[in-house]
Write a structure and sequence with these properties.
The protein is built from seven helices and 21 strands. By secondary structure, the protein is α+β, with helices and mostly antiparallel strands. The longest helix has 11 residues.
């Protein structure tokens, strides 16, 4: 019998975060400083993944999916390279709570700004129809997981804007429509330990493709899982052939993997080099099913390209039509 999509838990469903609209006289530097100051070590340590599993009586309920071995899963990435530097943790707030996701730096085409790819549910609350607040990115968190911006390897960057597709923003819940559009870009300005460094110039970035891949294509998925056996301090990866999700009409990818909540938004890389840690952004950790050891992600397409293009030219929160 075909599983209904509401059985989704976002092993990744960490809802969104971003900086609030600027007040009069509030410049980018002061907003950056305020968000960095907001994320104290205590707040970072208390932030949790927000993932869901399906209960027949109650519907979607907050839950932690089972961790553990099996399949391609749970391996600590020890290869270094670009993926260690240019992927990282995302912190944000929604509804008064602090949450965590993952993300990766994407190539961009303008000076002064950088782009971080993450899941749309890490940038926009599709149920409340709100952008998130206090959105923060820490590249190479693995290198010094101290929960303090000043003690991390490269420091912290904050979002000037979050950009999502209207297909996600109007989904009304984490449903099939949402899974097809579960990608977002954060536009970040200067940051880091000095406060004025450019993110991609500091840690590198990945090219991105907007074409889908055939079943059986080998990919690597990365993230910072923080639920179950994982503690959110270690860059973790899965590797294997992608398949079309049979419970979602084949509209999204799947990969055997047991990463848990906190890995949401982490990159899926095709043409990946284990020696250099480089590859091409091709999907991301989006959702899973309770009891099924697989991670799923959207198929990047023209809609993804439109969101990317908008992020390359805006400095305000944007829903792309």
């Amino acid at each position: 019998m075909r599983r209904r999509l509401p059985a989704l838990f976002a092993a990744t469903l960490l809802l969104v975060a971003f900086a609030a609209p600027a007040a009069a006289g509030d410049d980018a530097q002061s907003r950056h400083d305020r968000v960095v100051a907001h994320w104290t070590a205590a707040r970072m340590a208390a932030a949790t993944p927000r993932d869901f599993s399906f209960d027949p009586a109650r519907g979607l309920q907050p839950a932690r999916p089972p961790g553990g071995g099996g399949g391609s899963a749970g391996a600590s990435w020890t290869g270094g390279g670009v993926v260690l530097q240019a992927s990282g943790k995302v912190y944000f707030e929604m509804g008064g709570g602090g949450y965590v996701c993952s993300g990766a730096v994407a190539n961009d085409s303008r000076p002064g700004y950088s782009l971080v790819l993450t899941a749309a549910h890490c940038a926009f609350d599709e149920a409340a129809e709100e952008f998130a607040t206090n959105w923060l990115f820490i590249p190479n968190f693995d290198g010094s997981p101290t929960f303090t911006c000043g003690q991390t390897v490269y420091g912290c960057w904050t979002a000037d804007a979050l950009v999502v597709h209207e297909g996600y923003a109007t989904a009304g819940g984490f449903n099939t429509q949402a899974t097809l559009h579960d990608f977002a870009f954060a536009v970040v300005g200067p940051g880091g330990q000095s406060g004025n460094a450019q993110l991609d110039g500091t840690v590198g970035s990945f090219p991105i493709t907007f074409s889908s891949f055939a079943n059986g294509t080998q990919m690597y998925a990365f993230g910072y899982p923080a639920a179950g056996k994982y503690k959110g301090k270690d860059l973790t990866y899965c590797a294997g052939p992608v398949f079309s999700d049979p419970y979602n009409a084949g509209l999204t990818y799947g990969m055997t993997c047991n990463m848990t909540g906190g890995s949401s938004g982490g990159p899926w890389l095709s043409s990946f080099s284990t020696s250099t840690g480089s590859g091409t952004l091709s999907s991301l950790n989006s959702y899973g099913y309770s009891g099924v050891r697989a991670m799923h992600g959207p198929k990047f397409n023209a809609n993804t390209a439109d969101v990317y293009s908008s992020a390359n030219s805006t400095t305000t929160n944007t829903i792309v039509p």
